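User: Just a sanity check before I run the rest of the batch. Below are the structure tokens for the first item. I only need the designed sequence back.
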């Protein structure tokens, strides 16, 4: 593969000269084989460059300015895209060349490839692990069907009704009279005493009345 750099050796523009020098000097520093094609002195080179620069890469007036870079017949870019690749340490990728071993671009490419491989492997491992090791709960797998089965099972199975416990002490409680206590007996004794006292008082009153009647009769006589 031959890198072609189209430039104008007799350009009167200082900016264009500086851009051309930057591209050529950096390619020489990277030890990249390239060929300079002058468009100022060679009309064929100028026409070929204009025809092979993609339309979307041309300026508004349709005339691309040097430097323009190609890899054989494939368009690589102009100075701006070359400078962006230089800043990103991806000049060899920009040129369509394999980076030399040990270069910054080669180390970067190896690191990106390693990340891609590990990421893909990790994703595959995670997916396999999820399929084999993680069990989906029964409710999640069956959804409404599982819930409906539970509801039907609940309707078929009757829950046993708890029978009330019988209290031995309460059996026949309506027929049994409460047991008499000592207080009740004392109360009855007190009532008997009061009744006897009332009777004695009544007897005394009757006796006093009889006594008064007798006394009044004796006095009257």
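Assistant: Here's the designed sequence for the first item:
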């Amino acid at each position: 593969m031959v890198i072609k750099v189209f430039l104008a050796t007799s350009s009167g523009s200082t900016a264009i000269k500086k851009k051309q020098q930057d591209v050529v000097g950096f390619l020489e520093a990277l030890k990249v084989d390239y060929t300079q094609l002058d468009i100022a002195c060679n009309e064929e080179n100028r026409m070929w460059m204009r025809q092979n620069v993609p339309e979307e890469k041309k300026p508004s007036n349709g005339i691309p300015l040097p430097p323009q870079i190609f890899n054989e017949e494939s368009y690589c870019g102009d100075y701006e895209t070359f400078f962006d690749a230089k800043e990103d340490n991806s000049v060899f990728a920009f040129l369509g060349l394999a980076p030399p071993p040990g270069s910054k671009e080669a180390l970067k490419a190896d690191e990106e490839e390693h990340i891609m491989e590990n990421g893909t492997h990790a994703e595959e491992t995670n997916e396999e692990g999820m399929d084999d090791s993680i069990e989906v709960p029964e409710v999640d797998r069956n959804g409404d069907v599982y819930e409906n089965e539970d509801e039907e099972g609940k309707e078929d199975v009757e829950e046993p009704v708890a029978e009330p416990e019988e209290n031995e002490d309460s059996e026949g409680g309506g027929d049994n009279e409460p047991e008499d206590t000592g207080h009740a007996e004392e109360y009855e004794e007190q009532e008997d005493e009061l009744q006897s006292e009332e009777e004695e008082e009544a007897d005394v009153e009757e006796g006093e009345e009889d006594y008064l009647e007798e006394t009044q009769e004796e006095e009257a006589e």
